[in-house]
Specification:
The complex is a heterotetramer of chains A (216), B (275), C (260) and D (212). Chain A is an all-alpha fold and 216 residues long. Chain A has helices at residues 2-27, 30-68, 74-92, 102-121, 123-133, 140-156, 159-163, 167-178, 180-202. In chain A, helix 1 (2-27) packs across helix 2, helix 2 crosses helix 3 and helix 6 (140-156) packs across helix 8 (167-178). Helix content of chain C is 58%, strand content 10%. In chain C, helix 4 packs parallel to helix 5, helix 4 (75-95) crosses helix 9 (208-217) and helix 9 runs antiparallel to helix 10. The chains are: A mainly alpha (216), B alpha/beta (275), C alpha/beta (260), D mainly alpha (212).
Chain lengths: 216, 275, 260, 212
């Protein structure tokens, strides 16, 4: 019995929080507004504290690799754990201003920034090879997509204007007007998806984010 | 050799050959710049016009929700916008939802010399990091001090002259959000619509498509498309910078992709006609 | 009472939620809510037939999706993909085609295994199910490598890429193209739709992924909401059509109501 | 920022370049140990920076106010610690309460906030005609966006079969959507290539061929 109460109570709590937020917006009742503000502050504190939770979870996965000596993987996991612990300790030496630690700042400025930008850009390679080997106008959909895409590319790249003066105008039309109906429709469809997801959450049906899989 | 085998052999080119060609093509314009003119889109024009309406002492928030990994796309626009805000003598409050946002703030200050004539804590400030997605953004609109009790170096917020009388969205004249993800949606829903605060988006190029309908609906007064938007803003304020240089290498990379798509489809048409 | 400028929005919200509830109840009481035919789903039997004909396996994968079911944007896409997997698995078992499922989402593994085991059971071949058909790799790069490696070695005749994809979509789409596989895709991530459309033969876009999965699971909660959404889309279509037509006359009555 | 002159600066840019080449050794050559080394280095580093920032911000956001006498901050701090019980199988249910607050507030804010900007404003913008005296292009664009949006929304009717009166409008609707996704594709190429060109530029800068 306790298990059922514990479970259902959580969904009721979620629904109450959702309703408070909605009432606060449409009715502007000072008392509700104060509660909503407090709940949003709590949510911010919880999210902030959960930042470290993500790290703990991933370190747990990698330490299992090290314990089990998973072939070809465990030494990379050990390296990951070492870097995590080393940089964490460096940062904790001056938690109020970690960058004051010269080694921490050096690692941040040169390794983190470079790796971040390098990783983020890797898809550029894949787009180039896919453009050559896979982007085919196999049907009307793909044909329209590729034509609009090429025209927008010729508008974005300054050389388009050199090739033909009207290219930026044509590409500009697709970029400013041509894509509007589709993007506007995606906004409308996404809004309804959010409302439906919220409705199912209100009635305790959406449980994926609690770690329970699928419908209850 | 019949024509079909040419397409078959072209198709069997190792993908790494294409990667090397691309990486080399990207480098050439940095060594020998083409410096072609950049045409300016209406979204950049309304962006600068919106900034020019600011009066001395107006408080502007710059929300950094793009990481250091997106510097090539978002930093040039942030630098250009900061220059205009300083020219308008506005007071600038930075804050960030990225753990490396202070790096972006310090890089902006480094790239905008005019900051040296200003006083930190009086003319501009960086309040630091916050997380929590939409609840945090909603609470910032209601009570900034419930989210930021200090600036990013730990100085209590009430010891910062710039923050005197700045408590909520009602005290902020404009928000500029730099995004790689959804934070602009949160500022639309929790700042722009409820409080009417003018809002503009500095986004990676993909975000331009997503926020174009909001610009046309008048919800956003400006949208920049990554490095291209940065180059347009730089041209509008007459201060060519990093984005203008990047535009050169965009030419060669885009030509490669376009030629690749055309070749792929010529080959596809040829092989289909053979079947 | 209701804050000015939000009255129309409030009516909109109440009507939408009411419609959701009405159609949910109708669906619960057995009233059939049809989902339209999607070419991508209709092509699945053809893809499986191709695998059987060529004696090749079928590859199914649900994307990076932030490596967890609890992400509010990506989790629902993974769950929809697993529902479609149950449909695909049953057809594959019936045709004697070997299906391999690749993922990097650890917390989805129990559900995937249960889905596949049930499919084999329902087709009367429980003994043919081998847990090793489920290939798990932690991390986006290792997961991508595992899929590309499988494509090169086993050369599946068909790939089904359904779920919350990130940049791995363009690489997998290209990989499948170069081995001549038939490819069916589906995602609600706008940033990956162009790549899946350009590299695959069929593609479900945005809400279609959830509708296709609801059609398979016949989940009244999702079907009811989809019907409610459609009715509201019809309301919006009416507003757009009427508003568009009267805009030529200069009347702004409708705009003023929407702004109230 | 010119070419670094200090030892740690020079060592820094060459380390940054080495790490970049380790990562790009994967597409430009093949998957290898250097790539995995750089990958795990980045994951470990990102996790550590997130953890430090999380701890620093928790202190400023909640613990300092609590110490300064705002006793009610004890509740969100307790809820924050309850999140960690998600790691323990037996007490995972405890973590659902802070999640309920996170999910409830996010979904409530989303549901209340999405209708005006994502639905009503988009309808208003679509049916607002160009100002009097606008040129033919403005009217053409107005008609294209109006009819295109109507067709695209029709395409997303999911519980009505696309046949009969809906057959051609929904087909046109899908084409309008493809044009939109094509423009999105063009901007995605711009985004990825601008990022990659930044890396190419950095390589030349470190080699001293191009100024920093």
């Amino acid at each position: 019995m306790a298990e059922v109460v514990r479970r259902e109570l959580v969904y009721v709590l979620t629904a109450v929080v959702v309703i408070i937020m909605i009432v606060d917006y449409f009715f502007a009742v000072p008392a509700i507004s104060a509660i909503a503000g407090e709940l949003n502050t709590w949510a911010t504190v919880i999210s902030t504290m959960a930042l470290t939770l993500g790290a703990v979870n991933i370190i747990r996965v990698h330490s299992r690799n090290v314990r089990k000596r998973t072939p070809g993987v465990w030494y990379h996991s050990a390296w990951l754990i070492f870097i995590f612990a080393f940089v964490l300790l460096l940062g904790l030496t001056n938690i109020n201003n970690p960058s004051a630690n010269p080694i921490y700042k050096w690692i941040f400025d040169y390794s983190y920034v470079s790796l971040g930008q390098t990783w983020y850009a890797i898809t550029g390679f894949y787009i180039a090879s896919a453009a050559y080997r896979a982007f085919r106008a196999r049907n009307i959909d793909a044909a329209l997509l590729l034509i609009a895409g090429i025209l927008v590319m010729l508008k974005n790249a300054p050389i388009g204007e050199v090739i033909w003066a009207q290219l930026p105008v044509l590409g500009g039309w697709f970029n400013d007007i041509g894509q509007m109906p589709a993007m506007r429709t995606f906004l409308i469809v996404a809004a309804f998806g959010l409302l439906a997801f919220g409705f199912r959450t209100l009635l305790g049906r959406e449980r994926g984010f609690y770690g329970e899989v699928g419908g209850g | 050799m019949s024509q079909e085998s040419i397409w078959d052999r072209l198709q069997r080119i190792d993908r790494r050959v294409i990667y090397w060609i691309l990486f080399i093509l990207l480098m050439i314009p940095f060594i020998r710049p083409l410096s072609l003119p950049v045409s300016i889109g209406p979204q950049s024009i309304t962006f600068i016009e919106g900034l020019r309406k600011l009066k001395e002492g107006d408080v502007v928030v710059i929300n950094i929700s793009s990481g250091v990994s997106a510097w090539p796309e978002c930093l040039p626009s942030l630098v250009a916008v900061s220059k205009v805000l300083i020219q308008q003598k506005a007071k600038i409050i930075f804050w960030t939802s990225f753990v490396d946002g202070h790096m972006t703030f310090e890089k902006i200050v480094e790239k905008v010399p005019e900051f040296k004539k200003l006083t930190y804590g009086v003319d501009y400030v960086h309040l630091g990091f916050y997380t929590g997605a939409e609840p945090a953004v909603a609470q910032l609109a209601k009570n900034i001090r419930s989210i930021f009790t200090t600036d990013y170096k730990g100085t209590p917020i009430d010891q910062l002259p710039i923050m005197k009388g700045v408590n909520s969205a009602n005290d902020v004249k404009m928000v500029i959000s730099s995004d790689t993800g959804d934070y602009c949606d949160y500022y639309i829903r929790q700042w722009r619509i409820p409080y009417g605060v003018p809002l503009a988006e500095i986004g990676i190029a993909m975000n331009f498509s997503a926020y174009q309908p909001h610009w046309q609906a008048g919800i956003l007064f400006g949208v920049t498309a990554g490095a291209r938007g940065g180059a347009e803003l730089e041209k509008l304020i007459g201060a060519p910078g990093d984005a203008t240089i990047t535009m050169d290498s965009i030419n060669t990379s885009h030509l490669l992709v376009i030629v690749a798509v055309i070749l792929a489809n010529l080959g596809y048409a040829a092989t289909r006609r053979r079947k | 009472m209701i804050v000015a400028g939000r009255q129309t929005a409030f009516v909109f919200l109440i009507v939408t939620v009411a419609l959701f509830y009405i159609f949910l109840e109708m669906a619960r009481r057995g009233r059939r809510i049809p989902i339209r035919t999607f070419p991508a789903i209709a092509a699945i039997p053809e893809a499986i037939g191709r695998c059987a004909e060529m004696g090749k396996p079928l590859l199914y994968t649900s994307g990076y999706a932030m490596e967890t079911l609890s992400n509010p944007d990506q989790g629902p896409q993974t769950l929809a993909s697993i529902s479609i997997l149950s449909h695909v698995a049953r057809l594959a078992v019936k045709a004697g085609v070997k299906l391999y499922y690749f993922t990097c989402i650890q917390d989805s593994l129990p559900l995937v295994e249960e889905t596949l085991r049930t499919a084999y059971l329902e087709e009367g071949k429980p003994e043919e199910f081998d847990p090793l058909q489920i290939k798990y790799q932690a991390g986006q790069s290792p997961y991508l490598n595992a899929v590309l490696g499988f494509m090169q070695r086993e050369r599946p005749a068909a790939n089904i890429l359904m779920g919350g994809f990130y940049y791995e979509s363009v690489v997998m789409g290209e990989g499948g193209n170069t081995i001549g596989a038939m490819q069916i895709a589906g995602t609600a991530n706008t940033h990956q739709m162009p790549f899946l459309i350009a590299t695959c033969d069929y593609c479900l876009i945005a809400e279609e992924l959830y509708a296709a999965s609801a059609n398979i699971t016949q989940d009244p909660w999702v079907l009811g909401c989809l019907r409610g959404e459609d009715i509201m889309k019809i309301v919006i279509l009416a507003l757009l059509i009427v508003g568009f037509v009267i805009s030529f006359t200069g009347t702004t009555f409708l705009i003023d109501v929407l702004k109230r | 920022m010119g070419y670094p002159t200090t030892m740690d600066g020079i060592l820094g840019i060459w380390t940054a370049l080495a790490l970049m080449l380790f990562v790009y050794s994967y597409p430009l050559y093949k998957e290898n140990q250097l790539f995995r080394f750089a990958e795990h280095f980045f994951i470990g580093l990102s996790l550590a920076i997130a953890a430090i920032t999380g701890i620093q911000t928790t202190i400023r956001l909640a613990i300092n106010p609590l110490m300064a006498g705002k006793v009610h901050y004890i509740i969100p701090i307790l809820l924050g610690f309850m999140m960690y019980l998600i790691l323990h199988r037996d007490y995972r249910w405890v973590s659902r309460y802070p999640i309920a607050i996170l999910v409830g507030s996010s979904i409530g804010l989303g549901m209340r906030g999405t209708i005006i900007p994502n639905i009503l404003s988009q309808i208003i913008a679509t049916i607002t005609p160009p100002k009097p005296g606008a040129d033919a292009t403005a009217w053409f664009n107005f008609v294209y966006i109006g009819i295109g949006t109507i067709l695209a929304v029709m395409y997303f009717l999911l519980t009505f079969e696309h046949k009969g009166p809906l057959l051609y409008p929904t087909r046109l609707g899908r084409w309008v959507i493809m044009i939109g996704l094509g423009a999105y594709f063009g901007n995605t190429v711009l985004f990825r290539m601008a990022m990659l060109s930044g890396r190419a530029q950095f390589l030349l800068q470190v080699l001293g061929l191009v100024p920093f």
